[in-house]
Design brief:
There is one protein chain. The protein is α/β, with parallel strands linked by helices. It has a domain of 131 residues: 3-Layer(aba) Sandwich (Peroxisomal Thiolase, Chain A, domain 1), CATH 3.40.47. It is built from 13 helices and 11 strands. Strand 10 and strand 11 form a beta hairpin. The two termini are 14 Å apart.
Length: 388
């Protein structure tokens, strides 16, 4: 435990027509620094998580953070990208900076502006996070990739459509209580389980309610070394964290086993000297409901092929043994690529400090985060607990 989160900011996710990347960066940067009790001049380094790619015509964005305050001029600022795990990659880079003792206070921001593109363009941009030499012809973009994974899972273990609908319904129910969520509506199991005009098939067998949302948004945290954090008005410790990458081509691995996810969880839990049973809740990467189902199995909540039991027994409901995605997850909250991982850290910090409002999990003191890039290629786990 070498660093803590001492301040944060989070914009509501969704279609933000009057914002661009710069305005969102500036808003959360100023708010997070102010929340930490520090000033811009106290920041030693900046890490900006921004996937960008085809989403943003402004490709070089790290110094846009300086637009929030002239006092940030000449600070080292670095843009970080690791597909859908970009936000957590930026957080971990900030932690590396502090652990290397290069500075004591770091600003980390995650941002994405996705809604300027049309649906097909969004699909193409996201598909760039796959192995294009082998996977570029998959129809329906990344939804098509996970559609194929879902088909393979169903072929091996049987049709689990009801379990996927249960995950979607759970996350939308949780999202009602999240003031930052893009969709704050309890859609119910029947709607999520039924193909309809409002819930069509996107990439068979995945329906619209199985897919995360195209979003705009930003979030930010301020990190401080532990000694400095103990003098702050709040401090949420990064008790442990792990990052592992796997092969990019799906053909080189069993995509149903989520090995990178399993290893990242195992490494982080061992480093924290805890087990899964010690966690109060988890924020996990439900880019598609199939992903959350397979993550149950990878983290050890169920044996391979038995993730549906977790759903049917209510283990991951907000009042279950291990609540998963009390924020509503990517499914309800939205998934602005670069912002997602930072958002997870903000919302987890709020939970362990008992400041999550209607989202609050009872007696939450130890929270786990899993954020992935690509099809379980870049895998990040963080375990957080409040010390002030």
């Amino acid at each position: 435990m070498t660093a803590c989160i001492v301040g944060w900011s989070h914009l509501p996710f969704g279609r933000r027509d009057h914002d661009d990347v710069e305005s969102m960066i500036c808003a959360v940067a100023s708010e997070a620094i102010n929340d930490s009790g520090f000033g811009p001049a106290d920041i030693d380094a900046i890490y900006l998580g921004h996937f960008g790619g085809a989403f943003s015509p402004q490709g070089f964005t790290s110094s846009l953070v300086f637009q929030s305050s002239d006092a940030l001029r000449f600070k080292p600022a670095t843009r970080v990208e690791n597909a859908c795990a970009t936000g957590s990659a930026a957080v971990h880079q900030g932690l590396d900076y502090i652990e290397a003792r290069r500075g004591k206070v770091v600003l980390v921001i995650g941002v994405e502006k996705m809604t300027d593109l049309q649906g097909a363009q969004v699909g193409d941009a996201l598909l760039s996070a796959s192995y294009l030499k082998e996977e570029s012809d998959i129809e329906d973009g990344f939804a098509g990739v996970f559609g194929k994974i879902t088909q393979a899972y169903f072929q091996k273990y049987g049709d689990k459509s009801e379990a996927l609908a249960g995950i979607a319904a759970k996350n939308h129910k949780n999202g009602v209580s999240n003031p930052y969520a893009q969709i704050r509506k309890d859609l119910g199991f029947e709607f999520c389980n039924t193909v309809s005009e409002k819930n069509p098939i996107v990439a068979s067998p995945l329906k619209r309610t199985d897919c995360s949302l195209v979003s705009d948004g930003a979030a930010a945290i301020v990190l401080a070394d532990t000694a400095t954090a103990l003098g702050c008005h709040k401090a949420v410790a990064i008790r442990s964290r792990a990052h592992v990458n796997d092969f990019l081509p799906m053909s080189k691995r069993d995509v149903l086993s989520f090995d990178g996810c399993a290893k990242a969880w195992n490494d982080a839990l061992q480093m924290a000297s805890v087990t899964l049973n010690d966690l109060s809740f988890v924020e996990t990467h439900d880019c598609f409901t199939t992903a959350e189902l397979l993550e149950y199995e990878a983290m050890g909540l169920a044996e391979p092929g038995e993730g549906a039991r977790v759903v049917s027994e209510g283990l991951t409901q907000k009042d279950g043994r291990l609540p998963v995605n009390p924020s509503g997850g990517l499914k309800a909250k939205g998934h602005p690529i670069g912002a997602t991982g930072v958002s997870m850290h903000v919302l987890t910090a709020m939970q362990v400090r008992g400041e999550a409002g209607e989202m609050q999990v009872k007696n939450a003191n130890l929270g786990g985060i899993f954020n992935m890039g690509g099809v379980v290629v870049a895998n990040y786990v963080s375990i957080l607990e409040a010390i002030r």
